[in-house]
Amino acid sequence: MLTDTHCHLASHRFAPDEIPALIKRAHAAGVTRMITLATSLEDLHANLNLAQAPGIHACIGIHPCDVHHAPDDATSRLEACVRDPRVCAIGETGLDYYHAAPEGWDEPAFRERQRTLLRQHFELAAIANLNIVIHTRDRSGHASFDDALAIYADYQHRVRALFHCFIGPWANAKRVLDRGGLVSFGGVSTFKNASDIRDTIAHCPMGGFLLETDSPYLAPDPHRGQRNEPAFMRHTAERIAALRDESLAALAAHTNLTANGFFRFPSDMI
Predict the structure, then answer these.
(1) How far apart are CA 117 and CA 95, in angstroms?
(2) Residue 231: is its pLDDT beyond 80?
(3) Helix (H, G, I), strand (E, B) or coil at 227
(4) What pLDDT, on the 0 to 100 scale, is given for residue 78?
(5) pLDDT attached to residue 268
(6) What residue spans of 213-266 are helical by DSSP H?
(7) What is the CATH number of domain 2-263?
(8) What does the pLDDT look like over 122-168, one tens digit per residue?
(9) What whole-number distance in Å separates Cα of residue 260 and Cα of residue 270?
(10) What are phi and psi of 267, to 5 degrees?
């Protein structure tokens, strides 16, 4: 019924032997499809292996916080996997200006490295005829969002971008939608102090957004502070449906259709 469009099932916070039970809990909560995202070359094949299970698909990419570990030919190595039927998009990639530059890097050089890798991911997505999943995060302001959107502008006619875990104001979400992109909402939308994102959710049109957990991170209320998992998306979906004054079934139906289009799934896939 529901699609978790962004989770990290290969995370070290999920023991491999607990994945079957985790999937079973998700199904029991009505989450019948999950998209697990690689964040480095090291977890690439673990995510592809997980995507062999029914209802699980994979995205492949280098997270911006990991670009200092990535070799210069990282996207060439990813390219070897883009025709794999388990791969449904490029990502997680993007820009992260929240975390400090790692040892041996200054801030300008680290940010430029992120921007270079983001452009390479866009190029790879265009070559592979796949869409792309973007991470942005700032300590204050929205410079990473602005920079990522500016890069997206160079590719918007060839690649569609999903700005995941979106927590910004409606004005910024509209900038993404105006370029043909999407945003996705997760557990933050259930937090008591998240008034901006609830306003964005209320304004966002059908076909403009998706649902996610970003598990194992950012668990929704009533599990805030715990390890997140795909089953918890039911809480987020129920809250978002209420905010939009629509039924859970209606929300699931239109977000599944949007997911089918973005990830190039067959139109009848749930």
Answers:
(1) 9
(2) yes
(3) coil
(4) 97
(5) 62
(6) 233-243, 248-263
(7) 3.20.20.140
(8) 999 999 999 999 999 999 999 999 999 999 999 999 999 999 999 99
(9) 8
(10) -65, -25
Residue 35 in 3-state DSSP? strand
For the packed helices 107-128 and 143-153, what is the interaxial angle rounded to 10 degrees?
A: 40
Tokens 């390479």 belong to which residue? 120
What letter represents residue 74's amino acid? A
Whether the pTM exceeds 0.85: the reply is: yes
Q: State the virtual CA torsion across 128, 131, 137, 140 in degrees, nearest 10.
A: 120
DSSP characters over 152-214: HHTTTTT--EEE-S--S-HHHHHHHHHTT-EEEE-GGGGSTT-HHHHHHHHHPPTTSEEE---
Q: Are strands 182-185 and 161-163 parallel, antiparallel or unpaired?
A: parallel
Per-domain boundaries in the chain: 2-263
Residue 4: strand, helix, or coil: strand
Alpha-carbon dihedral sign for residues 243, 248, 254, 257: positive
Q: Which residue matches tokens 């041996």? A: 104
Tokens of 158: 């060839």
